[in-house]
From TrEMBL:
The active site is at K37. The gene is bioD. This is ATP-dependent dethiobiotin synthetase BioD. It comes from Streptomyces wadayamensis. The keyword Ligase applies. CDD domains: DTBS (cd03109). Its cofactor is Mg(2+). PANTHER family: DETHIOBIOTIN SYNTHETASE (PTHR43210:SF5).
Amino acid sequence: MTVQVVTGTGTEIGKTVVTAALAAAALAAGRSVAVLKPAQTGLRPGERGDADEVARLAGPVTAAELARFPDPLAPATAARRAGAAPVGPEEVAEAAAKLATEHDLVLVEGAGGLLVRFDERGSTLAEAARLLAAPLLVVVPAALGTLNATALTAEAARARGLELTGTVIGGWPEQPGLAERCNTEDLTEAAGAPLLGALPWGAGSLSPEAFRAAAPKWLAPELYGRWDAARFRETWAAG
């Protein structure tokens, strides 16, 4: 794994925290890591962005951001409203490829879901992943409704010739209901790819030290961790 693109089924579902957990687990395994945020929206200059948050939680990673737009909107819309040039997939691929020459692992964190528009041509994160020949890690919620969104994301990815590494649940509740417990089984079928981890709800609020110590327990060996999918399902299986 050299470049891993991290996307999700929507916004505010834990992509940044999952990216941080993957970075922390890779660092603990002795890998050098870079995190690239192609387009940061909803923040002004000087405010901490997603790449900075990954570095705060995970530790010594190279954090890079290509563009920043103040409105909390899709990158293409935010760029247009700011009167600024958008970020295209070629720019994303070039920056990630350069980082990959200097790091063992490059994590490219998208904005919103896979098909959120990056520019006026309708380019998306999927085009950048295709240019990089990089697989997608899809961050998903645990609750009711996640199966449809997960299946749609997976179908859109495969229609574009992209490979799915798997899915990770961005926030697992302390007291999961019936839907969440059933989804531990059904997410794999919906994605057509393995469930590779589950972060506890509120993981991003942990201290950096606690976060780094716990991160490998949340992710499967494919993501540098030691999380056991079979044991997780057994623990939370619906009765």
